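The data are quoted verbatim here:
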Amino acid sequence: MDTLSEMLDNIRSSGALIGQSLLVAPWTVRHEAGSSLAVVAMLRGEGWIVRDGAEPTRLGTRDLAILTGPGTSLLTSDPSGRTPPVCVLTGDGVCTDALDAPLAEDRIGLGGRAGRSQLENDHLLLTGSFPTSGRISERLLDALPPVFVVPRAQQRSRALGLLEDELDGGEPGQQAVLDRLLDLVLIGALRDGFALPGAAPPAWFGAAGDPVVGPALSALHADPAHPWSVESLAEEARVSRATFARRFAEVMGEPPISYLAGWRLCLAADLLQDSEDTLEAIAHRVGYSSAYALSAAFTREYALRPSRYRVLSRNRAA
């Protein structure tokens, strides 16, 4: 499994987190990020993304945007950001009005069929939310700017069109289909966005396709608890130890054993948050000889003992 796949395995849409909003200018929808990543598209009309401390970002028809990071974003027809919001989208996908009351579907046209029957000069906004938590998810979020736009002309994926078609229907199993299509929209946006001219994708994004680094990364991610060494990883890559070490550092920006140690600690952190396993069990799952060895490395990396990290991370997730 490549690094992006493993990260996305920890970021999945789930539940009723997709909405279409029919809006008549001037309009503003306030998006409160929380611990989430959001995908936004103007299916009809154009809009702007306004965030504090940044210039407004134009969102053309069927452009895709990924929103990350803390704070509030305004999705609006007014680049000045002065138009009061008609609704608020929370980080967990709930839509409320300005008074924090649940917003009825017929007030802004949430859903599919209602929206298509309206005037063509209305604006049709699609939003999808992905709750996130954990160190593995953070590696992806840290690689993205707060607003990451993929213009329509540079989109190779057809998932957005499929998602729009599914929203128009009402067949059994729709929510399950929408969840999976939204995952595909996100994956396609990341692939296409990182491929844009001038983009600065993280080192791990292109590493899977490197003939030397790719096979070693795949083996490392498939079995992080294995007692990997530079020699054994070089064998996976079918090159000499020196060639492998040099190429890995060039592509990834750090030595292979350093990357392995960081990845193991990410896995341990997420297991502390999400599982009931003992520290000893987690240590063996991620490649440490004992709970003591993991605790020492974990404390050096995160400046928190594993037991304290478990409490704090679960409180944040809750």
Observations:
- The chain has two domains: 3-194, 206-317.
- Residues 99-119 have pLDDT under 50 and may be disordered.
- Residues 174-194 form the longest helix (21 residues).
